[in-house]
Design goal:
372 residues; Pectate Lyase C-like; ten-stranded parallel sheet; binds 2-acetamido-2-deoxy-beta-D-glucopyranose
């Protein structure tokens, strides 16, 4: 049914600003013809953002309160339904009406479908109080941003919505995601090549595929992933808790200085997982090891329940084994009936502190630390 993906209503609620010391130019989309309850505003938004981008000073784009129509067929040039550039903060809410297109490309990423919101090349930005509902593809894509914070995002779609990653971060530095609720059918947050200095705190995730450092090694000269922290998050009914995955037979790459701390897993299939032979649908050469080096990773204070017996899986590459992996204060219970809880580890010798023997990858465990 073509009609069902034709039009979406998007409610832009309120425009908030953060104060900055530097002068800013303001661009009002209504001056370019955006009108509440009027015709499709894609063209108006495109011209407003073009002006904002061409501006020499930091700029803000104003979108008034109201319901606006955007045509789904016409995506912006870069494949976003709505692309935000150089904006300082606003409230945005809407319904992507994506149900008709979930799974439209089988298990594959659907390139022709729009991403609900793209944040491209935003520097020193704050975006908060955003709701994204039932998107067709990724909800939020963060690309080329520097020092951008995303607070209080609510992302909602059903568990069966394929390839609807909540927030994807690539080639960006200084990204902060906090106080957010993400429920949908794919990765709640995916962290891709070139993500540096990313901090994720107080996020609830589920249903979905958990928080992922993503599918590295697929592209040549992929930039390293470095300095990632995930802290104080709760994952509920997800396929993975905290996962790092890389492709086998891959290009060289690296992911390092990643610290995952104070995480609660509720009924999660794979609470702690490094998978360097990630090969969905068997369409890769799994015989050759991944060439992505994983180094300096810790999982600390992780508690909760696992729905599979292998609650800790560290499957590192035989080509470039993982270095400096630490497991500390892990308290996970298996809630199924297929035997005792266990861990499965290869090409890694983690340092373990306060981890039950069964979850310690066969490494000798030290006493729990006294940290609460
Ligand atoms: C990342 O953080 C480190 C340490 O806090 C800092 O030295 C570095 O400049 C930051 N890099 C980027 C790209 O934000
Ligand atoms: C491990 O990562 C942390 C956080 O980025 C960093 O402070 C520390 O220096 C790293 N350790 C090594 C040995 O690189
Ligand atoms: C726990 O997760 C399993 C799938 O892994 C699901 O079938 C079950 O309904 C979940 N339990 C609860 C209480 O949500």
């Amino acid at each position: 049914m073509v009609k069902s993906i034709g039009i979406a209503k998007v409610a832009f609620l309120l425009v908030l600003f953060v104060s900055t010391a530097r002068a800013q130019s303001i661009f009002d989309a209504t001056k370019d013809g955006a009108k509440a309850n009027g015709p499709d505003i894609n063209a108006a938004l495109t011209s407003t953002w073009k002006k904002a981008c061409a501006s020499a000073t930091p700029s803000k784009v104003l979108i008034p309160k109201g319901i606006f129509l955007l045509s789904a067929g016409k995506t912006t040039e870069d494949g976003g339904w709505v692309t935000f550039q150089r904006i300082e903060g606003f409230t945005f809410s809407g319904d992507g009406q994506g149900a008709s297109s979930w799974g439209a490309c089988g298990n594959d990423y659907c390139k022709q479908l729009p991403i609900n919101m793209r944040f491209d090349f935003i520097t020193n930005g704050l975006v908060q109080d955003v709701t994204s509902l039932n998107n067709k593809q990724f909800h939020v894509n963060v690309l080329g941003c520097k020092n951008a914070a995303f607070h209080r995002f609510t992302i909602t779609a059903p568990a069966n919505s394929k390839n609807t990653d909540g927030i994807h971060i690539g080639r960006s530095s200084g990204i902060e995601i906090t106080d957010s609720k993400i429920a949908m059918g794919d990765d709640c947050i995916s962290i891709g090549g070139g993500a540096r200095n990313v901090s994720i705190t107080k996020v609830t995730c589920g249903p979905g595929h958990g928080i992922n450092v993503e599918s590295l090694g697929q592209y040549e000269r992929e930039e390293p992933v470095v300095r990632i922290t995930v802290k104080g998050c709760t994952l509920t009914n997800t396929d993975n808790g905290m996962r790092i995955k890389t492709w086998p037979a891959s290009y060289a790459g690296s992911a390092s200085n990643m610290h995952f701390e104070d995480l609660t897993m509720v009924n999660v299939s794979n609470p702690i997982i490094i998978d360097q032979a990630y090969c969905p649908h068997n369409d890769c050469n799994a015989k050759h090891p991944s060439c992505v080096k994983i180094n300096n990773v810790s999982f600390k204070n992780i508690r909760g329940t696992s729905t599979t017996p292998i609650a800790v899986k560290l499957a590192c590459s035989s080509g470039v084994p993982c270095d400096s992996v630490e497991l500390a204060n892990i308290d996970l219970k298996y809630i199924g009936k297929e035997g005792p809880i266990s861990s499965e580890c290869s090409n890694v010798k983690p340092k373990v502190i306060g981890v039950p023997n069964a979850l310690a990858c066969g490494s000798p465990t030290a006493a729990p630390s006294r940290k609460a």
